[in-house]
Amino acid sequence: MNASMKEIRYRFRETYRMLIVVVLLSIAGLVIEFVFAYMYSSMILYTDVVHWIVDTALEIISLIMFFIISKIYRKFDWSVFILEYMISIFVILVVFGFYILSLIEYVSAHSTSMMEPSTTNIYLAIITVIGGIITFITFSIEKKAYRRLKTEILKIDSTHAIIDVIVSIIVSIGIVLTALTKNLIIELVVVLFVFFVALQTLLSLAKDILKSILGFESNPHLKIELVSRLNKIVSDKVVLGNVELKKIGSIYIAKVEIYLDPKTTIGEAHKLRETVNIICREVSELIYHVDVVFYPKKRYRKVRKSEKQYSRKY
Ligand SMILES: [Zn+2]
């Protein structure tokens, strides 16, 4: 393994370690807010808990993704990834479902009886301030790690975190105002604000899943450049086959098929795979994982032919 591949491995492993810390912080924030939401049945806190759940699920997705791609030479298992996406969407939808039911119940109960908000304790703002501090710690960890490791996911996550710090300041002010004025309308405005912040994140996650399932948004310019750069490895012993580029969130996964002279040694093939890995990463920093699949060159035509027969049959 040469120096640049070693460096990539190091960056991915370190990013993975950072994401573990981020997920643990997120779970801590989630648990703290949930306990107080439950104790004081504050609708503002409950809504903030839904936001924490959505964000934690997103971070766990990034974590698992980095666990998979940090094993650079292992084949990327696309189906596991989609399954993971589906499960998290399912969990989030169940949480949202329960939440919307309790929101309806809350609105009907509070508007018909006494017009009193559910958040009456001013000190509950301390909880959302603590949540904001945890989010700020996450932000600074990610920002510092991004400067060192330059993995794009850390930059995207840190931007999300700083927005959430602002959200938690707004929510804390909202709790104080609601508790002081005992005004149901103020509470409803705060609740809806947090709800839409969480919904926004959920919708962008759903969009990513749909895109990766349908195979959209692979960058055609990037692919052309990649193929032209990869053509440099072509020789009388090496034929470049199909090149695929898939996008998940902000990163790309590449699959490169290579037809090799059957006399090629394993050592040569290994070196070739490394070269392909380096070329892919030279083309774009955002290509995080490369699957290199070798086929014997003699079978190149035969494979194509049998594929055609197969598709004609069915
Ligand atoms: Zn968020």
Describe what this molecule looks like in 3D.
- It is a multi-pass membrane protein.
- One of its GO terms (cellular component) is membrane.
- The chain crosses the membrane at residues 20-40, 52-69, 81-102, 122-141, 161-179, 185-206.
- GO terms for molecular function: monoatomic cation transmembrane transporter activity.
- Residues 19-214 form the Cation efflux protein transmembrane domain.
- Helix 2 runs antiparallel to helix 5.
- The chain is elongated, with a radius of gyration of 25 Å.
- Helices cover 73% and strands 10% of the residues.
- Mean pLDDT is 83; it is low at 305-314.
- It has helices at 3-40, 43-69, 78-112, 124-149, 152-181, 184-214, 220-230, 266-283, 300-313; strands spanning 238-248, 251-260, 287-296.
- It folds into two domains: 3-214; 220-313, Cation efflux protein, cytoplasmic domain (Alpha-Beta Plaits), CATH 3.30.70.1350.
- Strand 2 (251-260), helix 8 and strand 3 (287-296) form a beta-alpha-beta unit.
- By secondary structure, the chain is mostly helical.
- The structure holds zinc ion (ZN).
- Zinc ion binds at residues 51, 55, 160, 164, 201.
